[in-house]
Amino acid sequence: MANITVNPTRMELTRLKGKLRTAQRGHKLLKDKRDELMKQFLDTVREVRALRAEVEEELMTVHKSFTVASALMSSEALEQALLYPKQSVELTMTCQNIMSVNVPVYHFQTKTKSDADIYPYGFAATSGELDTAVDALGKVFQKMLKLAEIEKSAQLMAEEIEKTRRRVNALEYVMIPNTQEAIRYISMKLDENDRSTTTRLMKVKDMLLAQAIEEQRQRDEKLLEAYSAKDSAPQQV
Amino acid sequence: MATTYRIAVIGDWESVMGFRALGLDTYPVTSVDEAREKVKELAKTDCAVIYLTEQLARDMDDVISRYKDELRPAIILIPGREGSLGIGKNNIQRAIERAVGADIL
To answer: Could you say which of 1.10.287.3240, 3.40.50.10490, 3.30.870.10, 1.10.10.10 is the CATH number of the domain covering A24-160?
Structure first.
């Protein structure tokens, strides 16, 4: 890779090796996190789809009942009947932690205890269809709350999975290969330096040796000359 | 954590009136802009769940996606009186695509 600008030193090499180890461990952990999140997410999503279909269907029935009720009563009377609710809902929310994603858990409490006691109007002035509608709505509401909980969880988990997936990919395809490349570059550079040092030493040794041989040769020659000058006896054999 | 939150329902009057009987906060609105304002307003208060009719949600994607990644409020689409438009189902599909990168279910 052309864009690495690292100092080919041993210190840098150690640092990069540490970095690579951390990156690899992080990559493994994040991958595990992603897989587990994905598993949970898919479970949740399946649940959401089933529940949503159910809720939508039931709500349509409720809407139909209301339509019938509003056909049987004047809209003023209907509005008046529903104007002041008897029931009130208190919602408390706690957080559950699924693989570091905070998902909401709703608990709700109604003011009136009994389910049969939710009609905020007298029965005399209203039609029976309205009772049916309100009753059905009361039933579907439990499911709607559950739907809210899991659908929100699914959304939050989708976001987290996306983030984790990006991180995993960044580590896998950018961070780790780049670091490995840099490590390879440095170790090659260091090896190259080693080799050049060795060669230089060999060269120097050769030169010293040649010099020593030369000196020895000259000394030998000198001795030979001196020897032959002293007694010239065997001039020629 | 013992704070109590409210549940709001936003939609046209016919769709939301029933929820009033259950003690939820209903906000009948007539236009998308009104609903948009209402959602923003409710998000600032102690509102944990907002049920919104699909008829309105169709034209206010911007507001919905803004709150998508926050813990509160949860904006949940419900079919209005005119019937389901399949936006709620589509949103699940989109969440899957976002998470997995492809539509796998």
So the answer is: 1.10.287.3240
